[in-house]
Amino acid sequence: MTHTASRLALGLLFAFLLAAPVAAPRAAPATGAPAAQPALAIQSTVEGGFAIGDPKAPVTLIEYASLTCPHCRHFHEEAMPTLRKLAAQGKLRYEFRNFILNGPDFAATLIARCQGPAGFFRWTDTFFTQQDKWLEPFGRITEQQGESIQKAQPAQQPRMIAELGGLVGWVTARGLKADSVKACLSDVQGQEAVLKLRQLGAEYHGVHLTPSFVLNGLPLSDTGDWATLQPQLNAMLSR
User: Fold this and answer.
1) Best CA proximity match to 182, nearest among 207, 208, 156
2) Domain map of the chain by residue range?
3) Hey, which of 20, 39, 129, 209 would disulfide with 102, CB 3.0 to 4.6 Å?
4) Confidence check: pLDDT of 168 > 80
5) Lowest mean pLDDT among 33-37, 69-73, 184-188
């Protein structure tokens, strides 16, 4: 993809992202900095995701998810303790791939990814567990502000969304530096990597809903929650 073509793709996608609904709020959990996680091998993958566990583990689970998706948040809360335990035991390699759905999701995804593999999972945990807290201010972005975002250069739109939605202040209050956050949000290569990851999910694995899963290379089109996925995962682990 050429630089011109990628910028055009970015602009066209933002027309969709800005119009997409944000997750409905629910009762807020306690606020705070990202929680520490058990020590696990964490790597960035060639495809652009982040993985925990041994690359040689007998079972690989890929999740495509959105940080603004309530169903993804629910899956994360229910499944991650078990998935981390299986990864620590060498039984599972779990990979998270962002599948962005809207502008706030794009901005939060860029911030999480800029923290590197270990920081990515800490911030993904925080964005899910406090989803309603950081999303709520985006609902107060005015129509006029939305129009100004759409008129801006595509590379500057994530930063504008994050600033108008209060996300820059929210993450800096939890330990990140404002200058590095703003630079991350404006990084064209980082933006393109996220868009390519979304394209990969849609075109290669047929993803159109979140969360979606790929188990040992097989897309699970009828699986969208832990209650449905867990028996399939257990069956694969017992082989």
Assistant:
1) 156
2) 36-237
3) 20
4) yes
5) 33-37
- The backbone region for 166, taken as left when phi is positive above 0, alpha when psi lies in -120 to 50, beta otherwise, is left
Q: Of 21-30, 58-67, 119-128, which gets the smallest average pLDDT?
A: 21-30
String of DSSP letters for 213-225:
EEETTEEETT--S
Q: b vs e for 110-147, b when ≥16 Cβ sit within 10 Å of the residue's Cβ?
A: bbbbbbeeebbbbbbbbbbbbbbbbbeebeebeeeebe
In the predicted model, what is the mean pLDDT of residues 129-151?
A: 95
Measured on CA atoms in the order 106, 122, 208, 206, is the torsion positive or negative? positive
Q: What is the mean pLDDT of residues 84-88?
A: 96
Tokens representing 106 are: 């794009």
Q: Which of 205, 204, 202, 188 is nearest to 5 (CA)?
A: 188
Specify whether the backbone of 178 is left (phi greater than 0), alpha (psi in -120 to 50) or beta.
Answer: alpha
Half-sphere exposure in the Cβ direction for 208 (13 Å, CA): 4
Q: For residue 170, give every residue at least 6 positions away whose Cβ sits within 8 Å of its Cβ, in sequence order, or none.
A: 133, 134
- What was the pLDDT predicted at 41? 80
What percent helix, strand, coil does the chain show, rounded to 5?
A: 55, 10, 35
Do the beta carbons of residue 139 and residue 216 sit within 8 Å?
Answer: no
Is it the case that residue 23 has pLDDT exceeding 90?
no
Region 197-205: mean pLDDT is 95
Residue 57 φ/ψ, nearest 5 degrees: -60, 145
CB 135 within 8 A of CB 108: no
| Cα distance from N-terminal residue to C-terminal residue, the chain | 41
Q: Please tell us whether the domain made up of 36-237 is placed in CATH 3.40.30.10.
A: yes
